[in-house]
Structure prediction request, 133 residues.
Amino acid sequence: MRDDEIRAALDRHWAASNASDFETEHDIYLDDAVLEYPQSGERIRGRRNIQITRTIQPNKKRFAVRRVIGRGDLWITEYVLTYDGKPSYTVSIMQFAGDKVALETQYFADPFQASGSRAQYIEMMDEGQERKP
Prediction:
């Protein structure tokens, strides 16, 4: 699969994730895909189980993609995942096998207060802003 086709598949995946379209959201995964959450120690095996675990979450979720980078079989998405109004800065690393995801690892980070000691050297970011060099 060409990089532009994978990027289009990722765009569909994240748009479906944001819309809670669970069927389209999970089209990107192989039937035996694996999803890992290192911070909680969870590993979910199989597209169906991945989809079920996301479907049964009671939280209202929103996804704001900031950046997608990759080529070949390795793609990284940086986004803000908001659960019930609380943002979590998230990185998804997807390894493709052909045109589907075989392995995804997601890392989550909660926001924290900026240090006043850096105030003169920084500018504040908009949490949903797309990242560009």
